[in-house]
Amino acid sequence: MRKSATALAMTESTILKDADTNVPLYLKVARALQQQIAIGEYPIGSLLPTEVELGTRYGVSRQTVRQAIQFLRQQKLLSAKKGVGTRVEARQPQRGYYFALHSLTQIFQFAAEAALHVDREEEIEVRGALAAELASRPGRKWLHLVGTRQTIGNDLPISWTEVYIDGRYARLFRGSKIHHSAIFSAIENSSGEPVTEVQQEINATVLSKELAASLKAEPGSPALVITRRYFGAGHRLFEMSVNIHPADRFSYAISLKRELTWENEPGSKR
Model confidence over 38-88: pLDDT tens digits? Predict the structure, then answer.
């Protein structure tokens, strides 16, 4: 039996109140909506209430509702058609995570949407090839985190992740089993030192038996390796992450814009 509007609003309010305080508000709304879709409050084929109605029900802005709906559209749970509304397409996410990178802002969003679940943590003294890769003095201490990233409502990890953090910032992350925010953001907030550059490298690979087991995927299946290096002032590296994504759970888009001046505009004359 469908709940009354009053009972439903109370349920939604409780979900938002109890959600992790590190999670952005739009993700709390998305989580609440996804739970109600999963239990059949909004059946497949039905239309969600309007953005204004959802905003009133959750006590959030219309923009927050739009962000939540967009997130669930990326998960293939919802579709939207102008003049019709937002339609429920599935009770569980159907496809992998889609990540569009335009700036560091999207990395913040990615970190919030795909929390890092730490399986192993250790402080290491880097030497040899690893020290060179981290541009670090041999013997210097770094915090090494290994785990998987998961999105809300999806049991399958979207990546196996390995993170190296400058030992000066280890105290910020030591002992935490789940990280909902970007690691470089926490370092910025703590030290006041902004990220000045992020270098990114993308390669293809196949999953080993060990990685496939961690990712609940098929051994030997294709995967995407994304390595990011975060630099502060003086081109000093303070974080490096390696993310391995099964090919069927992650797609990647980069937006490049050309800055035209009078001299290089097509058809211009010198």
Answer: 899 999 999 999 999 999 999 999 998 998 898 788 778 899 888 889 999
pTM of the model: 0.63
Distances (CA, A) of 44 to 12, 89, 160: 19, 5, 32
CA distance 230 to 98: 22
CA 33 – CA 162 distance, rounded (Å): 31
Backbone phi, then psi, for 148, in 5-degree steps? Answer: -130, 155
3-state SS of the chain: helix, strand, coil percent to 5?
A: 35, 30, 35
Distance from C-alpha of 164 to C-alpha of 110, rounded to nearest angstrom: 18
Block residue for tokens 């490096």:
240
Cα maximum dimension of the chain = 74
- Cβ partners under 8 Å of residue 49, min gap 6: 57
